[in-house]
Amino acid sequence: MDILHGSSKSPKQSLARATELAQKALAMDGSLAHPHFLLANIYLTKRQHEKAMKEVELGLAIEPNFPDGKFTMGRVLNFSGEPDKAIPYFEEAIRSDPIPRSSYLYNLGIAYMRIGRYSDAVEVCKKAVKYAPKDFWSHLILAEAHYLGGNEDEAREARLSALAINPKFTLDYFAKIMPYKNRVDRDHIIEILRKAGFPEKPPLPLPDKPSIAVLPFANISGDPEQEYFADGMTDDLITDLSKISGLFVIA
To answer: By C-alpha distance, which of 158, 175, 95 is closest to 121?
Structure first.
């Protein structure tokens, strides 16, 4: 989770520590299912999809009705490029939990989108937002679903809500953490999010004091000899405003 939410100072160390803890849990009690699901997510983060599948199968063999296990299988299948196979697992996980997690819902929404069921994706993502109104990913996936469904105004609202929660989000970051097996799938999704208005790069840092921009004056007299007068007015304004210590002036 440290890696997924961008708070890890060293993703490599975070993964190593998570792996160590999961393996230690299995060494203490080999009958536990949850460490297998944890390892499946770790391998998925590393884009080792075959190992992830093996671990989630081991976990489901121990606890076949565990909602988190079904959810993890859905994630592995979805990121491996098999959303049609992922959908039943997500749906079973949701049915198994009286109050399903928002992550169950928006991941089902992702799978619906990949097979063209955009209205269904919108509906489950709306539920995800209802259950967890401050969850960034619920709003992001809802924005994507609205955009693909042709609802650009709703997509804009969802995008603004997502970026209000996580203003530092960029598509560069998304590309690094989304463990799609096929790069073509990942690039296609990034292009959709770009069209939906999500930023490619982080925004420039804001100045630490109020700022003002001075635009050049236009010479509308038709007399080319007056150009120097228009330029002089602009320069004089910039110079005078720059003398105000509490103001940041942009030429």
So the answer is: 158
